[in-house]
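Supplementary Note 2. Why include the ligand at all?

Several targets in our set were suspected to adopt different conformations when bound, so apo predictions alone were not considered sufficient. For every target with a known small-molecule partner we therefore ran a joint prediction. The input for nicotinamide-adenine-dinucleotide is given below.
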Amino acid sequence: MSRPDEGAVELAALLRMSRRAVVFTGAGISTESGIPDFRSPGGIWTKMMPIDFGQFVASKQVRQESWRRRFEMEKDWMAAKPNAGHSAVAELVRRGMVTHVITQNIDNLHQDSGVPAEKVIELHGNTRYARCLSCNTRYEISDIRAHFEKHGDAPDCKFCGGIVKTATISFGQAMPEDEMERAQRAALACDLMLVIGSSLVVYPAAGFPLLAKRNGAAYAILNREVTDHEAYADLSLHGEIGPTMSAVLAAL
Ligand code: NAD
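The joint prediction is reproduced in token form.
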């Protein structure tokens, strides 16, 4: 384990040595933007249990509750702007040091910070829009909200009658095949895997850093707390993400 200031210098050294780094992010990178994570004190799970995919599909009432929660969080999530951590990652991508950002986040803040969309691999989808679960047609949240406010529920798909859901992957829902394949390719191709702000307990997502490590990549973790992967990490930094990543950039 390294102190944040020493660790930033060590992480900068690892980044300089690497040719194809991949960054893997979790909810922790967005807490400094005002979006709570799941597991920290005050995180989303201390307030309400997540809705499982099976419950969502099976019950109209559960769907209404899910949409009610989605619209309730709209104000905070839509006001959120990328923070210093997102900007540092975007700068590493811009300099060609990081090939891909694999993220568990659904907030679109990596794209907002300037990472080209084709370099962001969203394992758990994106909450900024919705899709029909049957035919995959895209719907905009503002249109669904207008319908919800008028009728008390979300519209079904206007083409096939299917259920419309935010374009996120819920617990119990199949992982997106394309993103899983892209993440696997990126993990196998990288020579440095840098995990920022993930508790590394959600699988299969947390398997990608381990895949990279087993394939010979160096493994670095930045988190304010100890994670489940401590034993595998070549470098483990304990500090706040924004200040630490700013220090890493300064040390490059
Ligand atoms: P998590 O809540 O399990 O873990 C977040 C981790 O980040 C914790 O280990 C915490 O110690 C650390 N952390 C939080 N703020 C930090 C900071 N400022 N500096 C350093 N460390 C910090 O998150 P997860 O592992 O990403 O898994 C939760 C799941 O919930 C994800 O799969 C994601 O889909 C979803 N989620 C997404 C968002 C989002 O899009 N912003 C927010 C909440 C949950």
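The chain has a mean pLDDT of 94. DSSP finds nine helices and nine strands in the chain. Comparable summaries for the other entries are listed in the accompanying table.
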